[in-house]
Amino acid sequence: MDFLKKNYEKVLLGVVLLGLAVAAAFLPFKIASEKQKLEDMRNQLIHPNVKPLTNQDLTVPDSVLKRMATPTTIDFSSPNRLFNPMAWQKAMDGRLIKVDSTNVGPYAVTVTKMTPLYLKLTLDSVTPMDTGTRYVIGIEKEAAANPRERTKTQKYCSLNTKNETFTLRDVKVPPDNPTNVTVVLELNDTRQRVEVSKEQPYRRIDGYMVDLRYAPESKTWNARRVDAPLAFNGENYNIVAITENEVVLSAKSNQKKWTIKYSASAAP
Length: 268
What we know:
Blueprint: H1 2-46, H2 59-69, E1 88-90, E2 96-98, E3 109-127, E4 134-141, E5 153-157, E6 166-172, E7 182-187, E8 193-197, E9 202-214, E10 219-224, E11 229-232, E12 235-242, E13 246-251, E14 257-261
Antiparallel strand pairs: 1-2, 3-4, 3-9, 4-5, 6-7, 7-8, 9-10, 11-12, 12-13, 13-14
């Protein structure tokens, strides 16, 4: 104890010096550790650890792009007529109808009936003669433009005889039934050969006849053919074509054409 009392200053100085020596010895390790921490922080900032991208759900942006690819059309005309109000017209029965292409004018015409017109050929009689057998062929042209040509006429024919409709090319006589004669006719317009007998006449569709109705003015036209005139909605029209499924109208004022469709199931 006396030693410590007499030399405590030296002992304290020695402890301090020892601490300084330990600190001086530990300082290089501390500096190296701090440098490593700084280097690690620098590397994390310069070369961060990036996670790989996953498959993202692009359904929403894809749907938006698809909608943007389709232009949006805003129609302020039909059927709302926001800026151009629609005119109305009183029909013959007092009803009010919209004045548009489907309710007034050619497209408001409806085909109520479509009747086929036939070319008919019949074998009316067979007459044996000294100069050869004569055949009487009946001709009926329902689609003829001239009404006088629509009635049935008869032509006396022999083999290879030609008229304005056909040429008699052959005659078939069954051995077991000589009275059941079949003639072979070659049609002039198509060069088609057809067989005609008393039991089996020939017919083909050469045109159509229509019944029409225009409801806004309560007008009807029956049995109308090509070139028949029509008058409605303050305009004159002609029927320029009739097929199995449609009728074509032409305005006399400007030659503009309209096609009226026909459906047998929709006809009244």
